[in-house]
Amino acid sequence: MEMEQAVIETDHLDYAFQKGDRILNDINLRVPQGSVYGFLGPNGAGKTTTLRLLLGLLRSENPGIHIFGNQMPGNRIDILRRTGSLIEQPSLYLHLTGRENLDVFRRAYECPATRVEEVLRITGLSDAAHKKTKAYSLGMKQRLAIAIALLHDPELLIMDEPTNGLDPNGIIEIRELIRDLNRHQGKTVLVSSHLLAEVEKLATHVGIIHQGKLLFQGTLAELQSFQHRHSFLEIEVDNVVRTEQILSGRFPVFIRGDSTVHVGHSKPAEAALINHMLVGGGVGVSRLCVMGNDLERLFLDIISA
Amino acid sequence: MKTKFFANTTAEFIKAKRSFAMWLTILAALFMPAINVVILLERPDILLVKFEQTPWLTFFRFNWKNVAAVILPMYIILITNLIVQIEFRNNTWKQVYASPRSFADIFFSKLVVIQMLVPVYILCFDGFVMLAGLLVHSLNPAYRLMASSIDWSSLLLISCRVYLGCLAVSVIQYWLSLRFRNFVIPLGLGLGLWITGIVLMDWDKIIYYPYVYSAFMFFIDFDKEPQQLVVLTISSVTALVLSIGIAYYDIKYRPERP
């Protein structure tokens, strides 16, 4: 990751809406060119605040935001000319048609009128372009918001929870669209989400934010490797006290009930060793399974660490 | 830069399309002439005598007095709120500020729309006044409106003076509408400031209070007090320049975009 050129870089980014009430704390975001960067965090973690700072929607004296190598907000217009965005729920003029909405923003982005039809086609809205957007479903509104973000054919897309509120079909559509924009049109995408499984399916890189701090940043492969180092075995035994005596010298052991213990381990081979040690020590093992095999479990472990 | 500003101002007009702005403009312009037609037709016993000398000028002033003092300030308060609320209601400010437009472009392109709608309102109102005059005459020829020539210069003079007087208020109301997401706040503040002006009408420092300028532009007899026209014109222009400067500075340097 360190070798790849970064499109977005923040250097010790802090932010507080009020003095003393720090929302972001020392965020060093690094979004590599050509990546789909999943910006993960629970609600209220600071994702939207970070994205709003990146887009210049929050005024910050912090000089540590660089996009395309240019400082934000100093080079705000140059940066925004190369950046498409979708922040929180879709921003649409509901009394206007889909095409009129695009026409409004087309003028701001200085694109030719032909581009409106192109983005309608890309987002699959050509047939609904003449309808007022208040008649659109949430999925269609979300797609139109993406169409607006794509109007000026930006190199970077910043999307805040683009699948929020969508049904499973809508989530798949948006995911496929983002994937296509990244793979076939070479766009770098920064997408925030609290839907962990969604990010796992979409992202090449992941940043995990919690309570204003960036707790993890790396590729998806690095996250999975991190996951193995921090997974647990759940073991059903006939004697939890004896189990703790046998394992506690080598592994972290947490008693979770009369017959259940959680044992930390760093690689799959250690599961066999743990089982061998217990059986050898006279403990009856009735069940042994690996916990924390999904990103969701790891995410919860990271943010509750 | 000029081309881009023009393009974005056109976009602002597209946003106002199918909103209530145009209806509000027409209905507000129609309001007083319609009421005055009824009044003139109902009470010729009292009013005919007033229309004997200069029927058209009297008719213009009969309509304009309520507009300059009440309807125009109300219209400005409502229309600025309505135009700015298009962004708040649709949650589009963030998309506007995340587009590659300078703050000046964003601020002034919307202000241009408001500054176009106010003259459109005045033009519509003047047009409806003319039609109302013709209607009154056709239903009661005793008013003799058709018998005399239309006093175009007086109508133009009243319209221009009152428009100049209301310019600063339109900018102040625009600023308030941008400042507050909740539309009730700029609406309440606007009404409060206007009522305060009415209450303080006799105050010797009232010339520093922009909310009364449009009323003064109509009610002061400048033939008798020509120096007041100079004072009011300078005050109106100064208030306009100051309100634009303060509003733009405040909006540009706000810590958070809506």
UniProtKB/TrEMBL annotation, chain B:
Alphabetical UniProt keywords: Membrane, Transmembrane, Transmembrane helix
Keyword Membrane: yes
Annotated TM spans: 20-41, 67-86, 107-135, 155-176, 183-200, 229-249
CDD domains attached to this UniProt entry: ABC-2_lan_permease-like
Keyword Transmembrane helix: yes
Full protein name: Uncharacterized protein
